[in-house]
Structure formats: C-alpha cells, structure tokens
Write a structure and sequence with these properties.
Order of helices and strands: HEEEEEEEEHEEEEEEEEEEEEEHEEEEEH
Structural class: mainly beta
CATH class of the largest domain: Mainly Beta
Number of domains: 2
Distance between the termini: 52 Å
Number of helices: 4
C-alpha cells in the first residue's frame, strides 16, 4: 500500500522544500544474472569524477552477505555501465569473511543489521581527499555489533577499475552499534572531520589523521547534532548522516535520514546547512522532510517505507541525491541547487546555531559480564552470555544467548542512563567548552 501525501497547512506549504523523484526510478534493480545481487541493490554512495557519477551500491545475493557493486552514469540519471562482479567483498573477520568462501561467513544471529541480509560490507559513503577516495561503511560479522570501517583507494585505480582497496580497519569502538559514517572532504583547523551515528544522534569527531590502527584508537563522538525535541517534529526519534556534506557558499549541505515518533516505521530525508568554519553548528534544518517514502518502489521490497540516502553529487546547477528504496532498489531525486539552497537558508534557518559537545555520560561502552534475562526456551531466568547493547523497537536492550540451550535472550533496559551509569566501566573525556579542537 502506498500512502498519499498528507494534507499540508498553508504555513507548512509555504516553507516546504522538496526533492523531485526521477521518473525513471528505480535506476538500479536486483540482477538475476549475478548471484551476488539477485535479492537487493540499495543504499548507494556516489562521487562525480571525470564527467561521470560513480555509484557504489550495497548488494545482497544468494549468500545473503552484503557486498558492494559499481555502476556509472553520464547524466546522473541513466545508468550507462554496470559491472558484472562486485568491487568490494568481505576480507576481514569483522566483515564476516570466512576462510571457506569470501562471500560467506558463520553467523551467530545475535544482531541482524539493516537490510535483512547476513552481514558483510554495508551502506558505503565515498569522499575524495587529494589523490585518494576514502570509503566508510558498516562492517558486520554476523554476531557482534555493526561498526564503522574505513578503507581507501587511489583515485587513478578507482577510475581505471583496478580495485586495489587498502586493507580495512575498524574506527568505531566495540560493543556499540555505530553507523552512517562519512568524512568531510576538507580539513577544519587542520583536522579531518568524521560524522557518524550512535542512536539516536549524529556524532562528530575531529581527528589528526585517518591512519586508524583498528585496535586502540576509536571515534569517541566529541560533538552531536541531536534529534529534534518536540513530539510533533518529523525527525525527533533518530537521525543519521546520508552522503558526506557538500561545500556551498551557504554552508556545508548535509542530506540526512530521520525517523519521527509520529511515523516511526518510515525513514524520510531532510537537509541541513552547517557552518563552513565550524561544521558542528547547524545554520538551517528542514522543518519538514524533503522526500518521503511515497512511491511504490519505496514501499514494496525488503523493508516497507524506507528511503535511505548514502550518495549525492552536484552537477553544474543541479543536486542529485541517491538513495535506497525499501532496502531493495536504488532511486535518485534532484533539485535545482541555487533555489534549493536559498530556500533552505532563509525559510528553514535555525534561530540559535551552536556547537553541542557530547556529555561523556551519553556514551555507551562494554557491557558487564553478568546480566540476567528470561530464556523462552528453558522457561527460566539465566545469565546472558556475551551480552551486547542493542536498539530494539526504538528501545535500549541487552541481548545475548542462553548458556544452557543457546537460545537468544533479550532484556529491555528501562533507560539509557541505566546503561551508561550502572554498566559502563569507564568513560571517555571530551571537551565541554563548546570550542573546536585546535
């Protein structure tokens, strides 16, 4: 069932800002000829290089493992080339790589990551900095928390389809579900800026370099762009970055995805303008979604009512936003750039732009070894083995397995503070003065 547009009041209509769907959507569908992308192709990253839009999309096929494919477009709308083989597959244990087969792994089924697949490499974002293309994505091994991973490739190799990706490393800490990561294409005060999402907010980190070791140095979430506070706000439940922010004369244009409590089964798309010198400050933020899941291909698939942006480019005077529809296909929506930015800057201006440092108490880390939960199979309370913090139906919970029968056990946590203050053995210190790191 496809929902119709809700009736807007005159005031809302005046300030509403919208992307326009391409009539030829979806531009990418699952391909039955390729075993690795027979079920779903979605959540596409995009960069514009050498007169082409290069789309790197998540694909799920017969193995149910997420790999990444490549397609390109000369006009940003029509696909001119699509490769027969994936360009990126799981290589490390934290991606679910198995010694038996590079596209398969052994799953404990503790946590099912987004998209309904069986883990792997998910939801990429691409940023070109100098002569390298950096890719952030979600790495999921099939049983522990999905985390942010980083790899990169020389731009010449990327354009020549020589997929010599650097060995990936994890950059977000263990025991935390961290997603939606992207890198700003320019340094700020000599530091790289990384956006990511720990439920329910967007987090921002400033780092000296991108040489993470995957062992001891993690993103910590120094600043936050939070959900809106009012129950009537369309993005008050959770928010996450879409494509890497794009530089404009009005500010950094950030396309984001969000869920609201009044319609919590559907993902919608919004836009922000961030200060050019301090991207932790939100100058403007859409009061209503710029795109909602209304088309059939956004509601008929693996997940109803989902539009999920991971890529965007600017070609001449037009903005192109690439997104996954219903976790099954790829769509694109566009807008005339100048008028879009003007209306965003004027009609959706934030009254008090400010940096919001993260309070260390809002961060979650390793769960304690002993937590009890009720096992439905044994019909009694057991100590949960391998406890992990998850989000279940928009609520915080601890999940693991029964030590006797191996059944999955989940126990709801009453509040986030219960996790942070009672269960966290240590906290990361962050700046509290609201100033950017120097």
């Amino acid at each position: 069932m496809v929902r119709k547009n809700p009736i807007k009041t005159a005031k809302i209509a005046k300030i509403q800002l919208l992307l326009e769907r391409f009539d030829g959507n979806p531009i990418l569908k699952p391909d039955p000829k390729h075993f690795w992308e027979t079920k779903a192709v979605f959540n596409p990253a995009a960069i514009y290089e050498n007169g082409k839009v290069h789309i790197v999309y998540r694909a799920i096929g017969e193995s149910d493992v997420s790999v990444l494919g490549h397609a390109s477009s000369l006009d940003g709308l029509h696909i001119n080339e699509r490769l027969d083989e994936p360009i990126y597959v799981p290589r490390e244990p934290f991606e679910g790589a198995s010694t038996a087969h590079p596209y398969a792994y052994q799953s404990g089924d503790i946590y099912i990551s987004g998209g309904g697949g069986m883990g792997g490499c998910e939801d990429p974002r691409l940023t070109r900095i100098g002569d390298r293309v950096y890719m952030t994505y979600v790495a999921y091994d099939g049983h522990s928390h999905p985390r942010v991973a980083l790899s990169s490739i020389c731009i010449d190799d990327f354009l020549n389809k020589k997929w010599k990706w650097k060995r990936p490393v994890l950059i977000s800490p263990p025991y935390i579900v961290d997603k939606n990561a992207c890198i700003l294409p320019e340094k700020i005060n000599g530091k790289y800026v990384i956006f990511h999402r720990v439920f329910p907010n967007i987090l921002i980190d400033f780092v000296d370099d991108l040489d993470f070791d995957g062992k001891s140095r993690w993103l910590v979430g120094q600043y936050t762009i939070p959900t809106r506070a009012l129950s009537s706000d369309w993005d008050n439940l959770k928010v996450g970055c879409g494509p890497p922010p794009m530089k404009t004369k009005y500010g950094w244009l950030l396309i984001y995805q969000a869920v609201g409590s009044s319609d919590e089964s559907r993902y919608k798309i919004g836009a922000m303008l961030l200060d050019l010198q301090d991207p932790t400050k939100v100058l403007a933020r859409t009061k209503t979604p710029i795109l909602e899941p209304l088309a059939a291909y956004e509601n008929e698939g693996c997940k109803y009512g989902v539009i999920y942006p991971c890529g965007a480019v600017i070609i001449e005077d037009r903005l192109f936003v690439y997104y996954g529809g219903a976790d099954t296909v790829v769509g694109v929506a566009t807008a005339k750039l100048e008028s879009f930015l003007e209306r965003l800057a004027e009609d959706h201006k934030e009254s008090n732009p400010m940096s919001l440092p993260v309070n260390p108490k809002t961060q979650s880390f390793e769960m304690p070894d002993q937590i009890e939960g009720f096992c439905d199979k044994c019909r009694r309370v057991r100590l949960i083995r391998n406890p992990r913090h998850i989000i279940l139906d928009m609520r915080h919970a601890i999940q693991g397995i029964c030590p006797v029968c191996g059944n999955k056990i989940t126990t709801i946590v009453k509040s986030k503070s219960g996790i942070d203050e009672d269960m966290v053995p240590h906290q990361i210190k962050t700046k509290k003065d609201g100033k950017l790191p120097k």
